[in-house]
TrEMBL record:
SUPFAM superfamilies found in the cross-reference section: P-loop containing nucleoside triphosphate hydrolases (SSF52540)
Pfam families: Bac_DnaA, Hda_lid
Gene from which the chain derives: hda
UniProt feature coiled coil, ranges: none
Residues covered by the Chromosomal replication initiator protein DnaA ATPAse domain: 95-162
Protein name: DnaA regulatory inactivator Hda
Length: 236
């Protein structure tokens, strides 16, 4: 019987530019980044598993993207599996993924109460649990609070290190925007960053999309980012 190859699911094209450990708002010396990077040094000895818990604006998805990029840089096979995107396909998408070195699963709380997915994830844990493998999972709540029906899956989700990530404050988001702009070679003042936060959605992904638009507009017009220029570009 032929071994099934893992489903090919490409990472978003923007990730190599901005979804890295360096651009994480907590910085490379934060507890979360330090732990995720340190786990790579222990793969030869045992299976590594991390559970990241936080609400939608905590930056946990960013950490997953950064983990995948870090794995690629180390020559490891990796994949990001967004439950929001694959849940309707069923647990068949997990078949063959045990051949990867690193797997990141985002928003696992979405499968709570789905018996097929719960059983599929439990079986995958058992297949993936071996030295040289690294699994990182995110959810909005702690495993015991997810209303998962399968006790064995709850037990598996509690296997490794659990990191609770606080939601980003407006100060965090302003700092993240300034940091991200600087990485692009773009000067964004704290005043401009806070203007964006007061006039636009506070969703971090939406704010970064706006920053991308401003970056292109600034280059095309050969203008610095000022509040009047931002107002004109975004028609605010």
């Amino acid at each position: 019987m032929a071994v099934q190859e893992p489903m090919q699911m490409a990472l978003p094209v923007t990730l190599p530019d901005d979804e890295t450990f360096t651009s994480y708002f907590g910085g490379e010396n934060s507890l979360e980044v330090s732990h995720l990077k340190d786990a790579f040094t222990k793969l030869s000895n045992k299976f590594q598993y991390t559970y990241l818990c936080g609400l939608g604006d905590s930056g946990k998805s960013h950490l997953l993207y950064a983990t995948c990029i870090h794995a690629q840089e180390r020559g490891l096979s990796t994949m990001l599996l967004s439950m929001r995107e694959v849940i309707d396909y069923g647990p068949v998408v997990l078949e063959g993924l045990e051949n990867l070195d690193v797997l990141c699963i985002d928003d696992v709380h979405l499968v709570a109460g789905n018996d097929a997915w719960e059983k599929g994830l439990f079986n995958f844990f058992n297949r993936f649990n071996e030295p040289g493998k690294y699994l990182v999972v995110t959810a909005d709540l702690l495993p015991d609070m997810l209303h998962i029906n399968l006790p064995d899956l709850v037990s598996r989700l509690k296997w490794g290190t659990t990191l609770q990530i606080r939601s980003m404050s407006d100060d965090d988001k302003a700092e993240a925007l300034v940091r991200r702009a600087h990485m692009r070679g773009l000067e964004l003042t704290d005043e401009c960053a806070r203007f964006l936060l007061t006039r636009l959605s506070r969703d971090m992904r939406a704010l970064l999309d706006v920053l991308d638009k401003l970056d292109h507009a600034s280059m095309a017009a050969q203008r610095k980012l000022t509040i009047p220029f931002i107002k004109s570009t975004l028609k605010l």
